[in-house]
Specification:
alpha+beta; Beta-galactosidase, Chain A, domain 5; 12-stranded mixed beta sheet; 9-stranded antiparallel beta sheet; disordered N terminus; Alpha-mannosidase; coiled coil; Gal_mutarotase_sf_dom; carbohydrate binding; transmembrane helix
Length: 1170
């Protein structure tokens, strides 16, 4: 009995020590699940008592050291606090919160033999994510939902413009030369060496070899084709081999594939996989539906795909596993928005790959490839995410073991039977006779690679695209590496310990090393665009490739979000809808999520794969229409007489055609739904079939309107269609549903008819059926509303200038330009050249102005809406439409382009202005934040100056800001002061050598929509904006972006609704707070029954608060509160029973709350229950 008690006591102390050591580094409120290595040590303790006694002695010494460090950190923290207490939200010492928690653990765990404290901690509320080497002492207060900012929003800007980073990417570009000398075996680096004599004196090199398989949910094959031919085999192999090969490990990322595989498995296999996850043998990394693109994806869509994956994990894996590590090895450039959202979901570590080779080289030289990735606005709100960057060209085996790919390739043991090594030296099976020589060869690469990192812990990925699909690969990789590990590990003079591990294993070892050496990682801020993998090959082409699908993506984004909100509002008010209706919503979520894959929204998949994505999104649009019909129909008590119910007035017939508009008839009803959480005062336009059509509101009162003829491209001319556009003034409350009736207007209608202006064209016999027609005369004409005046060229119709009310005239010379494709170039370094394709943009020089042979101009002038229609060059059939609405501070610009008559042709819309913007350009990142760019044409090529524009770009000087808001992601640049240029479409006949093996020739007529906003600025008193690396929309700019992405939903009802829903919430939210989503939660999928998930009486309310630029002189026309940011969900939604704080994707849930006060730039979720 005494012996058993000794074993138990020693085990308790050792487990306690492991927990303390890990907690000391992390600032996570939950204790990490014990890794397999820890469990093996505990098991070994029970077998070897004598060894335990030695470990116990060492543990006592380590604990004593920890206590001494705690005392030192406590002293230092107090000094720091005394110095910084007057500076709210300032960054403090990293250990401030951890020390108190550690002391409590020492007492708590020491007296808890059954580890109940640990178990309770694991079940605890939202963990405080690991902040790495810097953490705000006030973080806990900032994070709590009861916190309220003490400063007005305008005064807070100064605290949100400096990231306090060791490495700032914009500044780093000033330092890097971007030359490309031949580095030898590591072409983009240098000859890496190490001192063999000092190896034995250093800390043991801990090598984690990480088996993985990167599975694209669509690229060369469709999602389903990949699953049935490859991915199913990979996951089958995982379930068979893991556990049998006791030391083998595996990670996997794409839950879209995993869910498809899971539903085919029996309970035994599912239980086994859950146990593998629980034991740390298998790890799901990131846990998103896909490995999202980071350039074109909107943050709504990123949250949607991440939530979809995490919700599935919560429902089907349960509490046995939650993802804590991010794996992003293939997206073509990287955005800080993604780690920010991941941090909000309590993912604390990240591994990344595709970064400009010159940036990698610089960071490697300075041993900064591992860093704390911080947001541009500093460490406010969400913590920095600890990041590991791969140093070499690719994530495949030849480029991950060390700097020499011809050696690393020899240790990819799948190539024993398939594939070849491009360097001409094949792998060899490891035998007793060659193990020493082969082990040294790969050990030498490990040792050299380790010279690029700060610690003695090394990550070595072992995988590639669609690997481990055959049993032979599982066996060959495992058997041969085990022999190599055994040989290396027994060589004392090599001082190495290598083993298979997961990503969690790696970061646990990194924690241990940093703690033991009392080191911290550098802080980095900024992004990693635009990516180049070699030479001057910049991946800026995919920012625009397949713009038709990019625009379709944003249409689905808007329609899905509207359906989500309507469904949740209906469920709160009327109870659950059917599982079938909810199933349509889930299907649409997954279609949008799937397209966020880094070969989906990027436009970089095979033609038939893009068609498949298009069909899935078209089906999702139809599904969301059904949800909107049922949800809104219930909210307004509409009882349709047909199965069609309410119909959206914009729809698509096919996945490859432009949207069409339905026509309202006399007697039908217009149902409008505002999906924004603030009131809106903006005109709405519908199509009607009668010149006498008018509108009355729910009280029977006629509303102000105007009527104009509709124009369309017919027989290469701009002609009236015979139908009409009815535009009317509309005010609508937040989440409100408003109903109008189309009536027949009696009496004189002349005052309601718009005036038409046009070019004199004797070849066309225009018939305007009673509308007044005027011929355009002079060199220009103007359109104006209450807030601005716009001047257009009478010869070309293009916009020439905009004059905001009370401000100077701003020249805006708008025109089209085009690029060709350069010929193959002699790179001078032995490498082959490529030409522009789906990924790469390699132009043949500067852009050339497109001939302005504008054929026809038509102008509509009325009190509510003014429009200019331009029919452009015949061979491209460009149709450009400018719209200026009542009380709008912006001009909407729509382009329809068709490049099918061209080859190797890229079309751009360009604006030359008199804004003195210097070398600077500001672009958004995922619609979530704005970053400063800087022109450096002296050392970077033209193609390096194009950046992703997911939703907006602006230039500014001290008095004026010019913003172009975009409804779709495209490439943007500013190649000279005062200029903005956006690529609209590209048609390329050749492959660019990046694996797609085809050009981009599946163009179709494509629509792009923008809003041009010009804002007079008040000079800043306290902020040196020239030194900022970040930008912010004004309140008006933010509203314009929201209105463009989330237009008022228009639906047709053939029967009279029973009632309006004046407002879906009881009051406006603050102007700078946006409801990202109101998402009803799903229960587990019934795989053994109807295959559907049932909705819960719960929803995630996801909110985003933007910091806004207060220098704009424009004022927002809304009833929202521009001062207070207090939000009370129970007041907004009276039918809910409880509100609970949660992590972003609800994997972690905390206490009930009554109110939250969000900090600027915060994205947060709360769970509503009704």
């Amino acid at each position: 009995m005494r012996s058993l008690r000794n074993i138990f006591s020693v085990g308790i102390i050792c487990v306690f020590t492991v927990v303390c050591l890990y907690l000391y580094q992390s600032l996570d409120n939950r204790v990490p699940r014990e890794s397999p290595a820890q469990e093996q040590r505990i098991s070994a303790l029970k077998v070897d008592i004598e060894r335990l006694r030695g470990v116990l002695k060492n543990n006592h010494e380590e604990i004593a050291g920890l206590k001494q460090q705690i005392a030192e950190f406590e002293r230092k923290r107090k000094q720091d606090w005394d110095k910084q207490v007057e500076k709210e939200n300032e960054v403090y010492d990293e250990k401030a919160q951890a020390e108190k928690a550690l002391k409590e653990k020492v007492v708590q765990i020491g007296g808890d033999a059954n580890h109940k404290a640990v178990e309770e901690e694991q079940k605890g509320v939202i963990p405080e994510p690991n902040r790495g080497n810097k953490v705000a002492v006030v973080f806990e207060e900032l994070h709590k939902s009861i916190t309220k900012s003490s400063l007005p929003i305008c005064q807070m800007r100064g605290n949100y413009t400096d990231s306090h980073a060791d490495v700032q990417m914009l500044d780093l570009y000033n330092v890097i030369s971007f030359d490309n000398p031949d580095g030898g075996v590591w072409k983009q680096g240098w000859e890496v060496t190490y001192d063999k004599e000092k190896v034995a004196e250093e800390k043991t090199l801990q090598v984690i070899v990480l088996p993985h398989s990167h599975c694209d949910p669509g690229w060369i094959k469709t999602f389903e084709e990949y699953y049935h031919t490859q991915t199913r085999n990979i996951l089958d192999g995982m379930a068979r081999h893991l556990g049998l090969d006791k030391d083998m490990r595996f990670i996997y990322a794409e839950i879209s594939f995993f869910e498809m595989w899971w539903k085919e498995q029996n309970d035994d296999v599912r239980k086994k996989v859950i146990q593998l996850l629980k034991d740390g043998i298998f790890e799901l990394v990131t846990g998103g539906w896909v490995m999202t693109d980071e350039a074109n994806a909107h943050y709504f869509s990123v949250i949607t795909e991440l939530f979809e994956g995490h919700e599935w994990i919560r429902n089907h894996i349960g509490q046995d596993f939650t993802p804590t590590n991010h794996w992003s090895i293939d997206p073509f450039g990287l955005s800080p928005s993604i780690p920010y959202l991941l941090s909000a979901a309590n993912i604390t570590n990240a591994a990344i790959q595709r970064v400009h080779y010159s940036v990698k080289k610089y960071l490697a030289k300075n041993k900064q490839l591992e860093f704390m990735w911080r947001q541009l606005w500093g460490s406010h709100g969400k913590p920095d995410i600890r990041t590991h960057m791969f140093p070499f060209y690719s994530y495949d085996v030849p480029h991950t073991c060390g700097p020499d790919p011809k050696i690393c390739c020899q240790f990819d043991f799948r190539r024993l039977s398939t594939y070849n090594c491009p360097w001409g030296i094949a792998p060899k099976k490891i035998t007793h006779d060659n193990v020493e020589e082969r082990a040294f060869l790969i050990y030498d690469q490990y040792r050299k690679k380790s010279q690029l990192y700060k610690t003695n812990v090394l990550l070595v990925p072992l995988g590639d695209d669609f690997r481990y699909e055959e049993d032979s690969e599982w066996n060959d990789q495992y058997d041969n590496y085990q022999k190599l590990f055994e040989e290396m590990n027994k060589r004392k003079e090599w001082n190495i310990h290598a083993r298979f591990g997961t990503l969690s294993d790696y970061f646990i070892e990194l924690d241990r090393s940093l703690r033991a050496e009392q080191q911290s990682l550098p802080v980095l801020s900024g992004d990693f665009f635009t990516y180049s993998d070699r030479d001057d090959h910049y991946w800026s082409g995919y920012f625009t490739s397949r713009p038709y699908h990019k625009q379709l993506d944003r249409t689905l984004l808007h329609q899905l979000r509207a359906a989500e909100i309507a469904y949740s509002l209906r469920s709160m008010k009327e109870g659950k809808l059917s599982d079938e209706t909810f199933g349509s919503l889930v299907k649409a979520r997954r279609a949008l999520s799937l397209f966020q894959h880094h070969d989906g929204v990027t436009g970089t998949a095979k033609d038939h794969v893009m068609r498949d994505y298009g069909e899935k999104m078209l089906s999702a649009l139809q599904d969301t229409e059904k949800v909107l019909s049922e949800a809104l129909g219930g909210l307004i008590a509409a009882k349709p007489v047909s199965s069609t119910g309410l119909l959206l007035d914009e729809y698509r017939v096919n996945q490859d055609t432009l949207p069409m508009r339905r026509t309202y008839k006399i007697g039908e009803f217009v149902v409008l739904f505002n999906t924004l959480s603030r009131s809106r005062n903006e005109p709405v336009c519908i199509h009607v079939d009668s010149k006498r059509a008018a509108l009355e509101n729910a009280k029977g009162k006629e509303v102000q309107y105007q009527l104009s003829p509709l124009f369309a491209l017919q027989d290469a001319h701009l002609l009236p269609t015979g139908k009409y556009e009815l535009c009317f003034a509309n005010q609508i409350k937040p989440f409100g549903v408003k109903v109008y009736k189309v009536i027949e207007k009696s009496g004189d209608i002349e005052d309601f008819l718009a005036t038409i202006m046009g070019m004199s064209n004797p070849q066309i016999n225009y018939s305007f059926n009673g509308f007044k027609f005027e011929t355009i005369t002079g060199s220009s004409f103007t359109l104006k509303n209450e807030l601005l005046e716009a001047t257009f060229s009478a010869s070309s119709g293009f916009l020439q200038s905009v004059t905001p009310l009370g401000h100077q005239k701003i020249d805006v010379d708008l025109y089209y330009v085009h690029y060709g494709v350069r010929s193959h170039k002699n790179l001078g370094n032995g490498g082959g050249d490529n030409q522009s394709g789906a990924y790469l943009f390699l132009p043949d020089g500067e852009a050339k102005v497109l001939e302005q042979d504008i054929k026809e101009i038509m102008v509509v002038k009325g009190p509510i809406m003014k429009k200019v229609y331009l029919l452009g060059p015949k061979e491209l059939e460009i149709l450009q439409v400018y719209s200026l609405a009542l009380n709008s501070p912006s001009i909407e610009i729509a382009n329809e382009v068709d490049l099918r008559s061209k080859s190797n042709f890229e079309l751009a819309m360009c604006m030359d202005t008199n804004v003195q913007s210097g070398d600077d350009l500001f672009t958004d990142l995922n619609g979530l934040q704005i970053i400063r760019r800087r022109r450096q044409l002296d050392k970077l090529p033209l193609q390096a100056h194009f950046y992703p524009m997911p939703s907006a770009a602006y230039i500014e000087d001290t008095s004026t800001r010019l913003t172009l808001h975009g409804n779709q992601p495209l490439a943007v640049s500013s190649l000279k002061p005062g200029q903005l240029e956006v690529i609209l479409d590209r048609r390329l006949k050749q492959d660019d050598g990046r694996g797609l093996n085809q050009g981009v020739m599946d163009n179709r007529r494509t629509l792009s929509r923008f809003r041009l906003l010009i804002e007079p600025l008040t000079p800043s008193d306290n902020t040196n904006t020239a030194q900022e690396r970040i930008g912010y929309h004004s309140m008006v700019g933010l509203a314009q972006n929201m209105e463009l992405h989330y237009p008022i939903v228009r639906m047709i009802s053939t029967v009279k609704p029973g009632a309006e829903m004046v407002s879906g919430i009881t009051s406006n939210l603050p102007c700078d707070v946006h409801v990202v989503n109101l998402r009803t939660l799903a229960g587990p999928t019934d795989y053994n029954g109807n295959g559907l998930a049932s909705p819960k009486n719960e929803a995630a309310l996801i909110l985003h608060r933007s910091l806004t630029d207060c220098r704009s002189k424009l004022k927002l026309d809304s009833e929202c509160d521009q001062k207070d940011n207090a939000i009370s969900p129970k007041t907004l939604f009276p039918s809910i029973r409880s509100v609970r704080e949660t992590s972003l994707t609800l994997l972690y849930q905390g206490k009930e709350i009554t109110q939250l006060n969000m900090q600027p730039q915060d994205v947060t979720s709360v769970k509503l229950t009704w």
